[in-house]
């Protein structure tokens, strides 16, 4: 009888632990998806209302590329060195710090002085870039390995959700209340996110290590470890190309519709919002495929080829195209260049050393920030030299095509 009671208690305790683990996983998934959405909303607001800012301040539209590049430099620095901070202070705390910085970066740009735009881009870039490494660290610790691609893909739906929200809300606010009011409203939402995450810190930051060193040597060792690993090195190249092309879409497509094709700002914002809405089911779908049917590396290669095709279509849109055709091109861009993240990040988590998911993810994401720095600068240079937007999209598409074809060639040579 005593043994039966012990066995029964053990079963109940195991069931409770399993339920608690599942609850924590889904709570973390929900919290990280929401914070990812608001981080993306904050990062996307200035480019999406750039047409109104350019008109009001009488500046060159090519400066949008400079704004994006400054934010990418800051993001590069954050992702490169965030691993030690996540381990020392916890993923939730660093997420809060990042959202606070993002809100501050938006708020100071409302002065309308170009140096403050540069400062805001840098401060906001420092903050927004912590979102993905910290959430990857948390979910990588809680997710079962076989479900990781799906979990990461669901979490990354926060990005298109944030873009969709930004595409509707930011232009509407800019038209109705002015671009300064739009920036202040989004900055306030960033601050509210910081407050909303606070009750979860004690639950999820249990793995933080106050003794974790914060040194340049640790950063160098982390980057060297990523570059030396052939599989991670391949993901770094893919991250560079894919993030760069995504940045061209999110940073320039609305401006392209307004300045290049004659759309009004609200109509362009709605086209953009409709397109990125597709990225929500697309991300989940790609994650499901990578978890069940297709090897993640093969899927990423196919997506590279597909997003290159979308970039070519974007380059040939003409002013005479109907709105639905331009929206279809944007949807194709969104379903590919804005929808691959969960698959790639789950691969990074799978290949990361034990306990180093956040640090490894940050090092790989640093290559993405390098792409988000270099490709907008190339786009802006092409825009300044040619006066058109097509060349910039073709440059980004060529890089993604190279990654995709190399991945398929390598798969074919391995017989997988």
What layout of secondary structure does this protein have?
Layout: H1 2-48, H2 50-57, H3 63-89, H4 91-108, H5 114-128, H6 131-142, H7 148-156, H8 158-177, H9 179-197, H10 201-204, H11 216-228, H12 230-260, H13 265-277, H14 279-292, H15 296-316, H16 323-337, H17 341-351, H18 357-386, H19 390-414
CA distance, first residue to last residue? 55 Å
> What is the C-level CATH assignment?
Mainly Alpha
Helix proportion range: over 70%
Give average pLDDT, whole number.
Answer: 83
Structural class, by secondary structure, is mainly alpha
Order of helices and strands: HHHHHHHHHHHHHHHHHHH
Please identify, by name, the CATH architecture. Answer: Up-down Bundle
Q: Strand content of the residues, in percent? A: under 5%
Do you know the CATH topology?
Growth Hormone, Chain: A
User: What's the story with the biggest beta sheet?
Assistant: none
Radius of gyration equals 21 Å
Low-confidence stretches: none
Shape: globular
* Count of domain modules: 1
Number of strands: 0
């Amino acid at each position: 009888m005593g043994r039966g009671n012990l066995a029964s208690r053990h079963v109940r305790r195991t069931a409770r632990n399993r339920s608690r683990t599942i609850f924590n996983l889904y709570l973390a998934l929900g919290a990280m998806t929401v914070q990812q959405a608001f981080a993306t909303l904050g990062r996307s607001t200035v480019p999406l209302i750039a047409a109104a800012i350019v008109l009001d301040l009488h500046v060159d539209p090519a400066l949008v590329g400079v704004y994006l590049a400054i934010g990418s430099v800051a993001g590069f620095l954050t992702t490169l060195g965030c691993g030690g901070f996540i381990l020392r202070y916890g993923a939730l705390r660093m997420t809060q710090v990042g959202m606070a910085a993002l809100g501050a970066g938006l708020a100071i740009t409302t002065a309308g002085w170009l140096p403050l735009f540069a400062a805001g881009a840098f401060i906001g870039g420092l903050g927004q870039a912590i979102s993905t490494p910290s959430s990857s660290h948390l979910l990588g610790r809680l997710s079962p390995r076989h479900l990781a691609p799906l979990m990461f893909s669901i979490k990354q739906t926060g990005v298109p959700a944030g873009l969709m929200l930004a595409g509707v809300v930011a232009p509407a606010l800019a038209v109705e209340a002015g671009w300064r009011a739009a920036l202040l409203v989004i900055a306030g939402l960033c601050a509210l996110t910081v407050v909303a995450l606070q009750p979860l810190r004690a639950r999820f930051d249990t793995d933080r290590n106050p003794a974790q060193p914060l040194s340049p040597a640790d950063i160098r060792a982390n980057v060297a470890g990523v570059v030396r690993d052939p599989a991670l090195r391949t993901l770094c190249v893919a991250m560079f190309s894919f993030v760069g092309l995504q940045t061209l879409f999110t940073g320039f497509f609305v401006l392209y519709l307004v300045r290049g094709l004659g759309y009004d700002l609200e109509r362009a914002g709605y086209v953009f919002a409709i397109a990125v809405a597709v990225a929500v089911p697309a991300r989940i779908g790609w994650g499901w495929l990578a978890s069940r049917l297709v090897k993640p590396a093969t899927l990423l290669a196919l997506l590279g080829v597909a997003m290159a095709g979308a970039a070519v279509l974007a380059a040939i849109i003409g002013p005479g195209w109907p709105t639905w055709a331009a929206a279809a091109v944007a949807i194709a861009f969104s379903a590919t260049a804005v929808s691959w993240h969960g698959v790639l990040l789950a691969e990074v988590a799978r290949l990361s050393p034990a306990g180093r998911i956040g640090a490894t993810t940050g090092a790989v994401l640093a290559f993405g920030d390098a792409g988000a720095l270099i490709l907008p600068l190339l786009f802006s240079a092409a825009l300044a030299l040619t006066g058109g937007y097509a060349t910039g999209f073709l440059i980004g598409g060529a890089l993604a095509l190279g990654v995709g074809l190399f991945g398929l060639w390598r798969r074919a040579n391995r017989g997988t």
